[in-house]
Amino acid sequence: MIYAIPVILGIAVVLQGILNRKIGGAIGLSSAVFINALVFLALSAGILLASYMKPQLFPDFLRVPETPWKNALEPGGASLWLYWIPGFCGFLLVLGVPFAIQSIGPSKTFVVLVSAQIAFSVLLELVIQSQWNPWKLLGAALAMAGAYLVAAN
After folding, report:
1. Cβ pair 136, 122 in contact under 8 A
2. CB neighbours of 64 closer than 8 A, spacing ≥ 6?
3. Cα(23)–Cα(98) distance, rounded to whole angstroms?
4. DSSP track, 109-148
5. Phi, psi for residue 64 in degrees, rounded to 5
6. Which residues are CB-contacts of 70 (< 8 A; sequence separation ≥ 6)?
7. pLDDT 10s digit of each residue in the chain, 153 long?
8. Concatenated DSSP letters of 39-72
């Protein structure tokens, strides 16, 4: 059942990119990205407000700690500039995916995108967690080979 989440996310990313390309063709990609940001802001604000008002309805990782900024500013906590990186990455995705779809098509865009995610996540596991798994490396190599075959045609 938990694997349904990445499946839904995969469908959502493809759908978002294709629709943003279509909407961007009508009103400009910058306008489409702005509309995405407004919807994201509204939904995020709703989740944040609900997690404050009814924290018992949310799993621990979605709840806001009693002193969130105190935790963020403690020694050993993440530097404040790190808080900006995920938003920047999301912006790149929302802006870059429709552009890539327009330039190389949806299948090539997403095969290369997912392959890059696999390669980077395996690299991070090797570097940060020192997890060396030959089967994972073989799987990543096969994904890269598959991406090449899709993108080369």
Report:
1. yes
2. 48, 51, 52, 55
3. 10
4. HHHHHHHHHHHHHHHHHHHHS----HHHHHHHHHHHHHHH
5. -90, 125
6. none
7. 888 998 899 899 999 999 999 999 999 999 999 999 999 999 999 999 999 899 999 998 888 877 666 656 565 556 777 778 999 999 999 999 999 999 999 989 998 898 889 889 888 888 888 777 888 888 888 988 988 888 887
8. HHHHHHHHHHHHHHH-GGGS-GGGSPPSSHHHHH
